[in-house]
Every structure is written in C-alpha cells, then in structure tokens.
Amino acid sequence: xxxxxxxxxxxxxxxxxxxxxxxxxxxRQKKDKKYLPERVSDCPFCPGNEGKTPGEIxxxxxxxxxxxxxxxxxxxxxxxEGERQRINEGLKHLVTGVGRHEVIIESNLHNxxxxxxxxxxxxxxxxxxxxxxxxxxNDPRIEHVIIFKNHGExxxxxxxHPHSQIVGxxxxxxxxxxxxxxxxxxxxNTGECLMCATVRTEFAEGRRIILDSKHFLTFIxxxxxxxxxxxxxxKRHMASFGDINDEEITDLAYSLKTVLLKFYNGIxxxxxxxxxxxxxxxxxGSEYFHWYLSIxxxxxxxxxxxxxxxxxxNTSLPEEIAEFLRRVKV
Amino acid sequence: xxxxxxxxxxxxxxxxxxxxxxxxxxxRQKKDKKYLPERVSDCPFCPGNEGKTPGEIxxxxxxxxxxxxxxxxxxxxxxxEGERQRINEGLKHLVTGVGRHEVIIESNLHNxxxxxxxxxxxxxxxxxxxxxxxxxxNDPRIEHVIIFKNHGExxxxxxxHPHSQIVGxxxxxxxxxxxxxxxxxxxxNTGECLMCATVRTEFAEGRRIILDSKHFLTFIxxxxxxxxxxxxxxKRHMASFGDINDEEITDLAYSLKTVLLKFYNGIxxxxxxxxxxxxxxxxxGSEYFHWYLSIxxxxxxxxxxxxxxxxxxNTSLPEEIAEFLRRVKV
Lengths: 330, 330
Prior knowledge:
CATH class of chain A: Alpha Beta
Number of strands of chain A: 15
Shape of chain A: globular
CATH superfamily of chain A: HIT-like
Order of helices and strands of chain A: EEEEEEEHEEHHEEEHEEHEH
Largest interface: A-B, 73 and 73 residues
Strand content of chain A: 15-25%
Number of domains of chain A: 1
CATH topology of chain A: HIT family, subunit A
Oligomer: homodimer
Largest sheet of chain A: 10 strands, antiparallel
CATH architecture of chain A: 2-Layer Sandwich
Distance between the termini of chain A: 34 Å
Strand order of the largest sheet of chain A: 3-4-7-9-8-13-14-12-11-10
Number of helices of chain A: 6
C-alpha cells in the first residue's frame, strides 16, 4: 500500500509510491562520462578569464593563485542599483527588482566538485557563504537571502565550473513566511523547535540517518519529496545560518562533502540542487526556526501532478535510500 | 529594471528579469523532428494493445473504432482498494495511499496532439475529464481530484501517445487549501471573486490577452511564472469544473486547441504541462473560488533559486509573449 507522508515544515503531503518504488540502485545515472580538463579556455570562471566576470567582491587565495572568488552574477536577476519601491495598480502589485545576485566560484579547477574537493576547501566555500550572507543582509533593501547550488544540466545550470549562487530579494518569499509560521505554530503547541524535535526523533529511530557527525545530522526526510532528497540539520539550535561557528563550518564541510561523495560513488554523480533555508540574522535569537541545508538530486522529473497539487510522488522508500547511502564507501 | 510581480492567487512573487529577458522567438524549440507513425506496435495506448492497459473504465467510440479510452493507470501512485486510515506516531503523520489514478487516452492516433486534433475531438476529451472528475468525487475516500496532462519528455512523460491523467487523493493538498484561503480572503475584502475580477481587469487592459472567446478568456498571467505560462479562465463564475456545460465544453475545446496550436506553430511544439485547478463539486456553489486551466510550457528549467525560495525567475515579458501569440497564425 502506498503511503502519504506529511512534511511538517511545509505541511505538504508526499505520496511514497511503494508499489512503483525502485531500488536505490535503479537511480544510478547513465550519463556519458565526459573527460573534463582542469582549465577550459572559454570558461568564464577559469583562471585567466577573471575579466569575464564583473568586479570581484571577495577573493580567497593561497600562494600565487586564488582559491575562491565571489563576483556579481553577470546575468543578475535583480539590479544592485536602485530604490525598493512598491507600486500598486488595481490587481497589479509590483516591487522594483532591486537586490543582490552573486556567484561564488568555488575552485580554480574546472573539473572538481564539492564531492571531490579537500574538506578544508569545502569549509572555505561555506565560510564564503557566511561572509556574503551576513554582508548582503546589511543592505536595508534586502528582506531575504537564499544560498543555493545548481550542479549539472538537469539542475538548471549550463556552467560546469563549480559554483554556487546567493540572491538577496527585496521581499520575503511566501514559502519562507509559511515555513516560519508552521514552525512557530509547532513551538506554540509543544514548546520545542520542530527541527530540534526532528533531530531528536530521527536520531532515536535511526532508520533514515545517513551520517551522524559531531554538530550535524544528515538524513533522508521522513516525507522526502523525491529519491535521495537529503536534509542536513545542525544539532545546535540556530535560527540563522549567520550564527554558524568555525568548528561547525568544519563539521558541515565534512558532512556535505561526505554525503555528496556518497551520491557521486553510489549513483554516479547525479545532478542536484542544494539550498540553505535560514532565517535572517535579525531573527537570530528566534526559538521557532532552525536553519538547515536541503539537497534535491535531480533523478526524477516533476510533472503535471506536482504542478497541479503541490504534492510530490516519490518512487523510492526513504528508509531504503538511507540504508543504501550508509553502505556506500567514501 | 527587473520587476517583482505578485501572483494574487498563490501570493508568491515572480521576478520578471527584464534585463535577462529574451524575445518570444528565442524560446523556439530546437528538437530533432521525429517522424511519428499513426500506430506503434509496442505502444500500450495504440489500438490492438488494449490488453496492455488494466480494465477499461469508459470508452467513446464512433463507427468501428474507439476514439477515447479511460483506464486505471497501470503504474498507479495510489491504490484503488483499501481503507483511508490516518496513522500518527510522534512526528510521523501518515495516511494510507488509497485513491484513484486514471489515464485518459485521447485518441487512437499515436501521432496527434490536442493542438492538431479536430475541435470536436478535443471537446470529447474535455467531456471525458468532466465525466471522470464527477465520478471520482463520488468515492467517499477522495478529498481532491487533479486533472493534468504531460506533453513531451521535459514535462515528465515518456509516453508519446496523447493522454491525460486524473488523480483522486485521500487528502486536500495544502496548495489547494492555500489558494482557496487566498481567494476567500479576497472575497472578504472586496465582495468579488478574485478570478472574476481578474477576467474583468485583464479584459480592460487587454495587453496580456491571447484569445477572447464567448465563454473563456485566454491570457498570460500578469505574474507568469515562466515564459508562455498561460491561463484559461471561464467567464462565468464557477467554483467547480464539474459545472461546465456543453456549450462551454465546445468553447473550451476551441480555446485550448487554439492556444496549443499557437504554441505549436509559434515555438515548434514545446513540451508542456497543463492542469485544471478546481474546487470539489461539493463546493460547487462557492462564491470564493473559480476553476481555471493553467498551461506551463517547459521552455526553461527551474533551479536552486526556485527550490529555495518558491519564487520564480521569468526571463520573458508577459506582455510581449501575449503579443507574439496573438500574431501567430493558426
């Protein structure tokens, strides 16, 4: 019998289609393996092409070469210049598209990826996220900041060179407000943060855990929206990603790299997106929300049912995926 | 300057990325045109293979051959048999996966599509939707019914033969509840149905209209979530699709076929999903909701930003797309 499982953060149901469920192995990607060189002459993110990206915002370097560069997105969705204005005209509600849209170039190597990078370098990437996250929130026009990564063509990127993006929007997305509202309601009912409770109960049950490190629990959500959907929750209660400390950054680098390497080895480098869902640093003291990192491998395609209902059909069993990933050697 | 536009039904912002915006022409699909025969021997939906689909639920035929067949989905996401049960255990909330999942085979021709079908045949497809929609709601375990179509590989289907699907779920999706809540709130504030108001103001402004038929207005939403996102709204206030009458079915067939043919001719048969968003027939008298059909061509790929924020980046101008489509000959 299929199961509908409730995601308590989004309040949306997921259909776990047990009878259509595939084995974790069946999601192995059948991509042509392309040989990728370390440098590509026309890649805008490769060393030597620094002039192809707009003025650098920050750089991390060692010895003679840069390791990480942050630049404005050349094809920014929002303008850095301008005033945030609200214009209402009948049913048309508009906010001027001011905001920030930056690219974090994660390595000077064209052919690496978080899964294959040394852990220290991943920690540097996460430190850069924190740096830019806090800085962008200083802009008084910015209401919300989203950190995300698109890896591989099916994730929506055409650029192979490893990079993440960070966007500051002049509005709070409804999705974000809704999640905060739900976790607040959970706190009202129980006196506990929903994510803290999730860490506690996932730990006790154990069946969906992939990795348990000192500061983070990495697991398949009970109501995973798709195969290999993974959450990394900090164990310490923190509403805002901006509060992550150095020891936690090192540990998150370990957890993120390890789970992505398990994907890489286990199902052959799947395309994926990941996002950091966080409150603003202004809400840093909130007891209600708790930031986390969510990874969605693009191994199945959402279709009309998902569009029309907001519900997902997951053709895998979260418990089986977790067991499979625990066994993948890294 | 980019614009953030608010979708009043979902309350989500869309970034209209004016500075990255492409011309409507730029979304022309560059697919290899495959020659498709009228019949394919191993297609489960082609005549001669009726035994490959589970027991037929309904059939429409003329002369010696069937024109439309409705069957249970062989790979149903939900089980038709069983009791709807709610099981709560700590943070795990589960409903047994009972429900309906049917396939509407729209033609006995493998190589046709709504855009190319005679209008009368499209009307028959819509009549079948209505028939199944009303019948599935008779099942007391069913809380919500979604009618949708996946056309082309990027829409999430691997089956070429023209078909739609209809799913009855044992829960009301949160997305649906949220939309009803928003339109109810709009009614509270104004005394008018939001969709009736939208038809009125879109008609007055005219810039986003693609097609104006007797009973339907076909237009690009002000806050279209992606290029060529299209809404077809009935002009008569109807909360439930189940109330559509025969004259309206004929007119919807005309509008749907025409706009899909404009896509077909204008940007070379793009992949798309469409869904009918409707209240249950039990809410048929509701003043607050108003059913509509939403078409989302798969011409761009949602990425980490959309996943992480729920907001969309649309790299086209709704007004330009509408103008382009008005001019496409059919």
